């Protein structure tokens, strides 16, 4: 199974949707809350190539993007191969 990391904030509907999709696929993931650990926000921005919005999702250290990007991968049938 892939190593999945998702950077989130509380009260973020896009974060909730992305997490729900990952859970529906029974994917284990590490959630990093940048509102709880703001010192990790620069790390997220650097890893994502400058993106500052949440969620930021990484599969095997590869930046996927945000919720819309994750949903698009699922709709295109490209998410499962990345997760396996």
TrEMBL record:
Domain of life where this protein originates: Bacteria
Cross-referenced Gene3D superfamilies: Glutaredoxin (3.40.30.10)
Keyword presence, Transport: yes
Entries under CDD domains matching the protein: GRX_GRXb_1_3_like
Pfam family, one: Glutaredoxin
PROSITE patterns: GLUTAREDOXIN_1, GLUTAREDOXIN_2
Keywords: Cytoplasm, Disulfide bond, Electron transport, Redox-active center, Transport
SUPFAM superfamilies listed in its UniProt record: Thioredoxin-like
Limits of the Glutaredoxin domain: 4-62
Family that this chain belongs to: Belongs to the glutaredoxin family.
Function: Has a glutathione-disulfide oxidoreductase activity in the presence of NADPH and glutathione reductase. Reduces low molecular weight disulfides and proteins.
PANTHER family: GLUTAREDOXIN 2, GLUTAREDOXIN-1-RELATED
Family annotation (NCBIfam families): GRX_bact (TIGR02181)
Protein name from the UniProt record: Glutaredoxin
Species of provenance: Alkalimonas delamerensis
Organismal lineage: Bacteria, Pseudomonadati, Pseudomonadota, Gammaproteobacteria, Alkalimonas
């Amino acid at each position: 199974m892939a190593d999945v990391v998702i950077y989130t904030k509380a009260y973020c509907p896009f974060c909730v949707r992305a997490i729900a999709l990952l859970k529906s696929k029974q994917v284990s993931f590490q959630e990093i809350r940048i509102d709880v650990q703001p010192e990790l926000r620069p790390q997220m921005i650097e890893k994502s190539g400058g993106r500052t919005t949440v969620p930021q999702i990484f599969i095997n250290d590869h930046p996927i993007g945000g919720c819309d990007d994750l949903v698009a991968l699922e709709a295109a049938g490209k998410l499962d191969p990345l997760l396996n």
